[in-house]
Amino acid sequence: MKARKIKEGVFWMGAVDWDRRLFDSLIPLPDGTTYNAYLVRGSEKTALLDTVDPAMANELLEQLKDVSQIDYVISHHAEQDHSGTIPQVLEKYPNAKLITTPKAKGMLMDLLQIPEASFTTVEDGETLSLGDRTLTFIHTPWVHWPETMVTYLEEDGILFSCDFFGSHIATTDLYVTDEGRVYEAAKRYYAEIMMPFRTVIQKNLEKLKSYEIQMIAPSHGQIFQDPAFIMDAYRDWVFSPCRNIVVLPYVSMHESTKRMVDYFVSALVEKGVKVEQFNLAVTDIGKLAMALVDAATLVVGTPTVLAGPHPYAAYSAFLANALRPKIKFLSIIGSYGWGGKTVETLAGMVPNLKVEVIDPVLCKGVPSEKDLKALDDLAAAIAEKHKEHNFT
Ligand code: FEO
User: Fold this and answer.
1) 236 in helix, strand or coil?
2) Among 20, 62, 315, 377, which residue's Cβ finds the most Cβ atoms within 10 Å?
3) Structural domains of the chain in order of their starting residue, each with its CATH number
4) Residue 80 CA, closest ligand 1 atom number
5) Which residue has the CA at smallest separation from atom 1 of ligand 1?
6) In angstroms, rounded to a whole number, what is the distance separating the alpha carbons of residues 177 and 88?
């Protein structure tokens, strides 16, 4: 695709990756993604903001074919989907200065073996004049790595936000056209890579309040002409209290755990609690991560296998522990054949979660009337806890 004009002297560049289905060998990308770079021409200097994943380097180099001079390459984030083509760009423009945070400098030297002489580091709030245009660099750690920053183009009110406010959607639309679709993709993206750093993201959002942002141009997905839409969504995800929701990832081998899950979900719904249920044998973990953004309670459903939780259930606990959602309560349900340490093993896997553990319900074989009554009691206890905290 050719470069696309956003404003006079400001262009989208980059690549649409329609076929990518996995990121970091972990994160599902059901809708592909884009790697957005931006070219900003001032009256005296020209800057390229971010590059593209090295797999699509040729697309960016083709767009740069008629750009005779680049004075600055701004690298917001050292991860290779944005930085991976910097070496080729610097090869084409050997006099260009590579602008980064001090922390990103070391990371880019390690990851891409870029020579130290190429770098100019910038402090938080530092500005760079391109002549009639001014770039302000705002350090925004942990969106998504510790070295990340964003750039504010003062004269046009554009925030170039890299991963922050991004979404994995491959599309030919330059701007947001379907807010519902973008909301879901952006929430998935937040859940998968930024939720663990929620308190830092709160600070980053507060920091942006002092800028008059008219447009947000992320390095994945579409450009926001209505910045309030995505900033309000982020505020909700990071500041709002939990909601009256139970997230229930489960796996079943011979249907006993599944019977418990079905009964338990029905009991929760009767008591006014919403449930997001995920069969771990088939689920998209991005959807599970997204559900954890708002939920008050996590209940893991698992059979006992080889004396412990099913590996899929262990994976879901490991994931929740890594993502550090704002959940307040945790429990476990499931079936066993003769014994084991399922509860102890799972409970030991979530040290990062500051949760109250509500008594688990484990049954021997298929659930008996007594086991179903215990599930009713667990559902009632969860509903009561949610009510006490005014989770709605
Ligand atoms: Fe899109 Fe953290 O890289």
Assistant:
1) helix
2) 20
3) 4-239 (3.60.15.10), 243-385 (3.40.50.360)
4) 3
5) 163
6) 33
